[in-house]
């Protein structure tokens, strides 16, 4: 066959293939997803990056600080956090507390929670210098908005996202103060570094002086922005104390309360042809896993994205802090989010 005839045959085959694809898509707009044996949803698109632990220190009692290095680690901004994959496969989220100017280097600090879900215990026991630790690219839902004035409030390990903010605010010439509280001084990391800021920083150890005085929030001047990270009771107190003209920015690492009550609803599993009941006191994830036990999940707090699945019908009560507005249009995190309607249809 001549070269010209070969080219013509290839072009003709390509044209027929394109026409077939257009027809297939027209008949099923979701194609090729419904034809896949394994759903695309439920497998996070955020790729893992290899990183090496080059330093392990303990800046306070019960606090582990790790410095990670890799040429693949991207740039980040104050307030960002990363997902890390622990040796067991658990995924946990930690704020970056190093210097954004250190290219290829990320620093995280992990508080040991003895009665927690096990992630911090595993990190303290198994993450050692020289070990590999996969991380996902940083995400930032706690961006530092430019301002001439700030009041920062941190409780315990909540100092981690605040620390880079202090450096940026100082470099920008902003007027700022920090209220930093903790159970005891020995449990509060980065005190030595904070001493360099002098009277801008007020440290309150609960075993010495009780809870932090939040009066500066009430007296904040117009234009002042308030940033807070710490335990839920502290963040609630900050919101209550803040002046009406001082916007409050919070970093939460627990699921949000949601927009409605936790009432029962039904979920149709489109691929499986099954309909399940989700009880008032159980998560959508738990109900789905009764029927599909291999459904992937990890953090169960609405942060890692492992249990993200496509929603084909119904209105979702989104209770996560991960998904973008665009992602929320057609997907949900099964571990924390529920239905606003009586029925949801999932691509499962």
How do the strands and helices of this protein lay out in sequence?
Elements: H1 3-27, E1 52-60, E2 63-69, E3 81-85, E4 91-95, E5 105-111, H2 119-126, E6 149-155, H3 159-171, E7 175-182, H4 191-194, E8 201-205, H5 206-209, H6 215-218, E9 225-229, H7 232-241, E10 248-251, E11 265-269, E12 274-278, H8 284-291, E13 308-313, E14 316-317, H9 325-328, E15 331-333, E16 338-339, E17 343-346
Parallel strand pairs: 6-7, 6-9, 7-8, 9-10, 11-17
Antiparallel strand pairs: 1-2, 2-5, 3-4, 11-12, 13-15, 13-17, 14-16
The poorly predicted ranges are 21-45
Order of helices and strands: HEEEEEHEHEHEHHEHEEEHEEHEEE
The amount of helix comes to 10-25%
Report the radius of gyration as a whole number of Å: 24 Å
Question: Short summary of the structure?
Answer:
With about 350 residues, this protein is of the alpha/beta class. The protein has 9 helices and 17 strands.
Provide an overview of this structure.
The chain has nine helices and 17 strands. The longest helix has 25 residues, at 3-27. By secondary structure, it is of the alpha/beta class. The protein has helices at residues 3-27, 119-126, 159-171, 191-194, 206-209, 215-218, 232-241, 284-291, 325-328; strands at 52-60, 63-69, 81-85, 91-95, 105-111, 149-155, 175-182, 201-205, 225-229, 248-251, 265-269, 274-278, 308-313, 316-317, 331-333, 338-339, 343-346. Strand 11 (265-269) and strand 12 form a beta hairpin. The protein is 23% helix and 26% strand. It has a five-stranded parallel sheet, sandwiched between helices. A five-stranded mixed sheet has the order 12-11-17-13-15, with helices on one face.
